[in-house]
Give the backbone structure.
Amino acid sequence: MKCYECGGTYSEVSALLEINDPFVGPIYIPNAHYYQCDKCKGTLYPVETAKAIDKARTKRLLELLRKKPVEDYVSAAEAADMLGVTRQAFNKNRRIRHGFIFQTTMSRTTVYLRDSVALFLKTGDGRFPLRKDSESLTADYRQVPIPRPLVAAYHSPRSVSQPVLQSFGPVCQARVTESAYAK
């Protein structure tokens, strides 16, 4: 394909794709297929890659929002009061539905980030960078394999003194320690 910006040609690339999102920080897509111009380095994304980018961005956004304390969130009624509109007008607002106010769900209830609502009131856009520069990326986003820790899983026929070691995923509930055997 020919690049309309510089006249160069696009070549297909299959590699780790790094996108620096202004709100959630860097997003990494392993083995992404995309097209890159040989002169201006412009990129074109096929549908599958665009969906993978959107999925990774949404995952990272939810991860960052879940780190915020519960006190930083308000309900839809409180957000509507802050903006001076009715709940119906708040829920029908196209910009709010399209993510101009950060939102997440807690206990099947949609809640809105208080700072985002206040910024939306001032500027009409409640988005701001959620990731601080000092915040480190999780291993999931650097695509580093996570070692599977061994944890004790006690089954009913066995006693506490005879734990069965099983390998669980990266999220484990308890590590085996000497104090587990003291009982």
